[in-house]
Write a structure and sequence with these properties.
With 719 residues, the chain is of the alpha+beta class. The protein has three domains: 38-228, 3-Layer(aba) Sandwich (Deoxyhypusine Synthase); 242-591, FAD/NAD(P)-binding domain (3-Layer(bba) Sandwich); 630-706, 3-layer Sandwich (Rieske Iron-sulfur Protein). It has 18 helices and 31 strands. The strands form eight sheets. Strands 9, 10, 11, 12, 18, 19, 20, 21 and 22 form a nine-stranded mixed β-sheet that branches. Strands 6-2-1-7 form a four-stranded parallel β-sheet. The longest helix has 24 residues, at 295-318. The protein is globular, with a radius of gyration of 28 Å.
């Protein structure tokens, strides 16, 4: 099939990172249809107001969509655009509007959706006049329909033709009505038409039962799926991190029935923030592991991480995942605070563990590295994590697995969990959420959350080899984890590669302990990088991520302490990609009743007495954070808060987290973390409120984005 100009454009220019994932998703969509499978498209936000119909309507006409899930806003706003397009007003400076400006728009009957105002009279009232009659006629006839079916009746009746202001072919709702396409609209009651319907019910002019409910929508969807899934159903919004997806992949491939529920989307959590080192050079030295666990356990650790890299490569080949996987060398060199003798100790310990390491007199291709020794770890690897996750998700569904996104799991028990209000039942439950959300305390005394910072910039191709670099970490750091720097080279385009460098870690919610703003940490990281890689051009990207550091250095993968059928994967430290893959391998074997030689080493129930001093240091640091209850707040007055900024202030004995958005609207929340009662701190880099005790994180809107908390910050009304 010949490709059109848009397809040709994205295939030529959308080569890396999120843009490359767009290409992967489009190809997967195309392949799904060629295989005779169904496609479900989900629409979030205000896509109809953004005139999605110009593209989506034609997809529907060409039978490239078999079922739609959308918000009530999308359902109605496509029709509003059809009948009132010329009356819409655009507000390009909407971020600068004052409260009075907003009021003036409302007085004019203009309802703003970001930069676009929908006219009340020409849009809402035109539809209301006709849809009310259709609702009433159905009730009088004793008939009940879904919200979208009432909309279909209105469109196909011709009653709106006199108002048409755009080409009918650009209305996706009209195209769907002609096909009588099934649509699922959970939460329709909260839309404009839903509110209008409710007003008639309140006035006694209509019965609530005339409209089929959201529960009926969900049972309809379940029935539709069971009848149409013989060749699989494609979901265009799918999600999960590497730990959950790897476990789901291995289990579904082994013939198990698997359901994945993901709070966000694919890679939207910490997996999407990784720098994707695949390495058996662990960020805690092998000579340290020998001292803590013994030589045999250190060898098992090396063996398991080597096997994890091999497993990732095997999956990539088996499932034909195009994700820029390549084998590379890794170079470990001393941090200025470390001792030369420790490099020799690591060389010997890594060789005893079974790794073919060698010692070089200089660090290849690194400025200033000619007089610095380094250990070479051969046969390491790297890949593009989002492309890999996309391939894993596709493979899971091909083996019969189901993935739900924007699906918030809570009340996790041995029977299952509650997901978006619905009860899910399962024989086995795997909690792969970076920090476990099924456990209040036990695991959170064994590990602690850190933020790590990353920068990336272009380097002309050929100036550096594809490789991994790490220093041994700051021995003088106040942090138990002794943060280190890490770097790798990734493909970018035909002329440039991308150097990705990370480090400058600190405990989550405690960045101010070293009197360093987040921006200063990026500056330090850039200075470190340019000193060693002076060929670095302008920086293209920067971000931070969350790392869970176990006190004894090894991750936790297996049965949750005290449970027989609940498993966890956590404590990934700086080796998240291999730890997560290992977790999937260990748990898959356990569920299938297959012995695994690494299971005991990574058991979440293990107790490591030889790390008691580090345990007490971390526990003391955690306990010290509760002093924030009586300490001085970081914000004295709400008036001091600039747009885009947040902080914590005191009101009597209460602690209040506040944020002022770019529209000058103020939001306030209880600053007490719902997990175990620490006071959250403002993170200006991520625009989030972070808990300094156990690492829970919340958006500036108070929504939880990192566990162990599973609850949002409680909203507070301020006057």
């Amino acid at each position: 099939m010949s490709k059109g100009p848009i397809s040709q454009f994205i295939e030529k220019y959308y080569l890396h990172f999120n843009s490359a994932t767009v290409v992967d998703a489009a190809k997967a969509y195309e392949q799904q249809l060629q295989n005779g499978a169904k496609m479900m498209v989900t629409l979030a936000g205000a896509m109809s107001t953004a005139e999605l119909g110009k593209i989506f309507a034609e997809m529907i006409r060409q039978d490239k969509v078999q079922i739609i899930s959308c918000t009530g806003a999308n359902l109605e706003e496509d029709i509003m655009n059809l009948v009132a397009h010329s009356h819409y007003e655009r507000v390009p400076n909407y971020r600068d509007l004052t409260p009075q400006d907003e009021w003036d728009l409302l007085e004019k009957g203009l309802n703003r959706v970001t930069d676009t105002c929908i006219p009340e009279h020409e849009a809402f009232r035109r539809l209301q006049k006709h849809i009310h009659k259709i609702w009433k006629d159905a009730e009088d006839a004793g008939e009940r329909y879904f919200p979208h079916e009432f909309m279909y009746k209105m469109l196909l009746s011709g009653c709106l033709e006199e108002y048409y202001e755009i080409d009918l072919k650009d209305s996706w709702m009209y195209a769907a009505a002609e096909k009588n396409l099934p649509i699922v609209v959970p939460g329709w009651e909260d839309s404009t038409m839903g509110n209008i319907f409710a007003s008639y019910v309140i006035k006694g002019e209509l019965k609530a039962s005339t409209m089929k409910s959201g529960i009926e929508y969900m049972t309809f969807l379940a029935d539709w799926y069971s009848k149409n899934s013989n060749k699989g159903v494609g979901f265009f919004q799918i999600g999960g991190g590497i730990a959950g997806l790897t476990t789901a992949y291995l289990l579904s491939k082994a013939g198990k029935k698997v359901i994945v529920v993901e709070d966000g989307f694919i890679g939207s959590g910490e997996t999407g923030r990784t720098t994707a080192h695949l390495s058996n050079a662990l960020d805690d030295r092998y000579y340290y592991l020998e001292r803590v666990f013994g030589k045999e356990a250190a060898a098992l650790s090396a063996e398991s991480h080597t096997a994890a890299i091999d497993e990732i490569e095997k999956i990539i080949r088996t499932e034909h995942i195009d994700c820029a996987f390549r084998r590379v060398n890794g170079y470990l060199f001393l941090h200025p605070s470390d001792k030369e003798e420790n490099l020799d100790k690591e060389l010997e310990a890594s060789q005893r563990a079974g790794i073919s390491t060698t010692l070089l007199p200089k660090i290849p291709t690194m400025a200033g590295g000619s007089d610095q020794r380094c250990i070479v770890f051969p046969n390491q690897a790297q890949f593009h994590i989002l492309q890999y996750l996309s391939g894993l998700a596709k493979a899971i569904t091909s083996y019969g697995g189901i993935i739900y996104t924007e699906a918030h799991a809570e009340n996790i028990t041995k029977e299952g969990a509650t997901v978006n209000g619905f009860a899910f039942r399962a024989d086995y439950i795997v909690v792969a959420t970076n920090s476990p959300v099924n456990d209040v305390l036990t695991m959170h005394t064994k590990q602690h959350a850190y933020r790590s910072y990353v920068i990336a910039g272009k380097i002309r191709k050929g100036l550096l080899p594809y490789a991994l670099w790490w220093d041994t970490g700051d021995m003088d750091s106040k942090w138990v984890s002794q943060p280190y720097h890490y770097a790798r080279l990734a493909e970018y385009d035909s002329e440039n590669d991308l150097l990705i460098v990370g480090g400058e870690d600190h405990k989550t919610g405690q960045g101010d302990e070293e009197s360093l703003l987040e921006s200063a940490r990026y500056d330090k990281l850039e200075a470190w990088t340019r000193e060693r890689f002076p060929m670095l051009g302008d920086l293209s990207y920067r971000w931070s991520g969350q790392i869970i550091e176990p006190v004894d250095s090894l991750g936790f993968m297996g049965k949750n302490p005290g449970d027989e059928n609940i498993y966890i994967i956590t404590g990934d430290s700086g080796n998240g990609m291999t730890h997560a893959t290992l977790g999937g391998m260990i748990i898959c074997d356990s569920i299938r009743g297959i012995p695994n030689r690494w299971q005991e080493l990574y058991s979440p129930s293990r107790i490591t007495l030889s790390t008691a001093i580090d345990f007490l240091k971390e526990a003391g640091n955690m306990a010290a954070q509760y002093i924030d209850w009586i300490g001085s707040p970081d914000l004295q007055n709400i008036a001091d808060l600039e747009p885009g900024q947040g902080g914590v202030l005191s009101h009597g004995i209460r602690k209040i987290a506040v944020y002022r958005d770019y529209d000058n609207k103020l939001s306030a929340f209880n600053a007490v973390c719902p997990h175990l009662g620490c006071i959250v701190q403002w993170n200006n880099d991520e625009k989030s409120f972070d808990c300094p005790c156990h690492g829970s994180r919340f958006t500036h809107e108070g929504k939880v984005v990192n566990g162990p908390s599973i609850e949002n910050l409680r909203k507070i009304r301020i006057t």
